[in-house]
Design goal:
Helix content is 34%, strand content 16%. The protein is built from 15 helices and 17 strands. The chain has helices at residues 67-85, 104-118, 123-132, 143-151, 154-157, 188-200, 219-229, 243-253, 267-274, 281-296, 315-323, 348-354, 358-369, 443-459, 475-480, and strands spanning 4-7, 15-16, 32-36, 50-53, 95-99, 161-165, 205-209, 233-238, 257-261, 302-307, 330-335, 372-375, 386-390, 396-400, 416-419, 424-426, 436-437. α8 (243-253) packs parallel to α10 (281-296).
């Protein structure tokens, strides 16, 4: 490997990671390749040198000049350079010089980028190298915390997902949900601040829910922000009532996958389940079915979520018949009822009256369609949900258990962190012991609290997970932001 050097504005202290002094020879300038992370190279080395000119812009006007964004730009640019240029012939037998501008802290970030992302050292190993060399970046207040936000467990945390109830508003009143609406909710700025802090901590995936997320006035803007900021996968779950007009815009805004919740393909049963009792029920029902078809014009795969109850048992066959028109593209997910809201808090008998197990659902499918074989999920899904393919028509369906596995938690396989419409965040939707309230915190404090939340989840012992049973007693709190068991803003 060529020698690689990092220098800052103080040209008297030029060192390589191997701690060799860089003796700059003006008479042998062709032996150097300069990677410039500032607008201009220092006086004295501007002429006759091979430069990969990589001046980094300000990314976000609301965070202009922050140390984090400077550091992230260094990381992004050097990652691209390391990937695309280090095998290029222009580097052969050259000394690589990275000019970082003002501050040895920038030099330290550049070195960590090389070690962590190109040489594949762990964060702790890379920091140890800096400490062994007594690198001056370590003397800067907050440097290790800043570096950890960028490099610490970054690969593992890219699997983590924010499940965000962006609004409590909903245009349905489902029998097992019975929504409540907040008088006031978080605004666009609140959510962009939260997304910024969460991204800094390693999150790269978002699942937007509600309420009904498409009733949020700024949903398209906040999705665009997340995509622009660097989130690489966004899912949205909707009741489908507006998809006929919004599917295309969701795609262009940055939504990578759409889930549609519909619990019956019979108009009368559907209307009773969602609380529609006026002349609009047929129009709404037809609009949803048309919206599903419109969504398939913009997405290769669309998932349909179906909660199976005893009084909508016919939905199993109806959904499969509908999906058979789009085999492999319209994926069904049958869910067991979870005791929540009407089925837990107000009327405990309703759950027993309506519950249908995944075994009963699977047997009903086999009785009607014959052989099914277990298959890979065509979409990202929780491990407890198993997918099957009907040999007769190619329809793929998933079975999501709850009571049938005693409401078991996914434990260390769970990658979800939940945020409700009021701005509360937790590493679990059923246990609120680690709850934090994000809106009043400044950006730095948000990052600190979120990192603390992540570390608590990562360090949780196996025996501690035994109390995490997915009986949704905090349903109103997470879905609609309402006070529950003493928690309110």
């Amino acid at each position: 490997m060529n020698s690689i050097y990092w220098i800052d504005s103080n040209l008297g202290g030029r060192k390589s990671i191997s701690d060799k002094s860089l003796v700059f020879d003006n008479n042998a300038i062709e032996n150097y390749v300069f990677i410039c992370l500032e607008k201009n190279l220092p006086q004295g080395i501007q002429n006759n040198v091979r430069i990969i000119h990589s001046y980094f812009p300000k990314i976000n006007p609301t965070s202009k000049g922050t140390d984090y964004f400077i550091a992230k730009n260094i990381v992004n640019l050097l990652s691209d350079i390391y990937t695309n240029y280090f095998t290029d012939s222009i580097f052969k037998n050259k000394k690589i010089v990275v000019y970082c501008g003002k501050g040895n802290d920038r030099t330290g970030i550049a070195i960590l980028t090389y070690l962590c992302l190109f040489k594949k050292y762990s964060f702790n190993e890379a920091i140890k190298i800096l400490k062994d060399k007594n690198h001056s970046a370590l003397t800067y207040p907050g440097f290790e915390s800043l570096a950890y936000n960028i490099f610490g467990n970054i690969k593992e945390r890219e699997l983590y997902k924010l499940r965000i109830s962006v609004t409590s508003k909903c245009n349905f009143n489902c029998m097992y949900c019975n929504r409540k609406q907040l008088d006031s909710e978080l605004n666009y700025k609140h959510f962009t601040d939260i997304l910024s802090a969460a991204y800094d901590c390693g999150f790269r995936k978002i699942h937007w829910t509600g309420g009904e997320p498409l009733m949020c006035d700024y949903i398209f803007d906040v999705v665009k922000f997340a995509k622009y900021y660097g989130y690489n996968f966004q899912t949205l779950t909707t009741n489908g009532t507006t998809l006929i007009n919004t599917a295309s815009k969701l795609k262009s805004s940055g939504i990578d996958r759409i889930n549609i919740s519909i619990d019956s393909f019979d108009m009368k049963t559907f209307s009773a389940l969602v609380g529609l009792h006026d002349n609009s029920n047929k129009r709404v029902f037809d609009t949803i079915l048309t919206g599903i078809k419109e969504t398939l014009n913009h997405y290769d795969i669309v998932k349909i979520n179906i909660c199976v109850l005893k009084n909508n048992i016919s939905v199993i066959k109806d959904a499969i018949e509908f999906a058979s028109n789009y085999p492999g593209r319209l994926v069904l997910k049958f869910l067991e009822l979870v005791p929540c809201q009407n089925c837990y808090e107000y009327d405990k008998s309703l759950f027993d009256e309506q519950f249908v197990s995944i075994d009963n659902i699977k047997n009903a499918i086999i009785d009607n369609y014959g052989f099914v074989e277990e298959t890979e999920s065509p979409i990202y899904s929780r491990q407890k949900c198993k997918y099957f393919k009907i040999q007769k028509n190619g329809v793929i369906f998933g079975l999501n258990p709850n009571k049938s596995i005693n409401y078991a938690c996914q434990r260390t396989n769970c990658k979800d962190f939940r945020i409700n419409p009021s701005g509360f965040m937790s590493d679990c939707s059923v246990n609120l012991e680690n709850l934090i309230y994000l809106p009043p915190l400044d950006s730095s404090s948000k990052r600190i609290y979120i990192l603390d939340l992540i570390e608590k989840k990562e360090k949780r012992k196996q025996e501690d997970w035994d109390t995490y049973l997915h009986r949704q007693k905090h349903y109103t709190f997470w879905r609609f932001g309402y006070k529950y068991d003493g928690y309110s803003k």
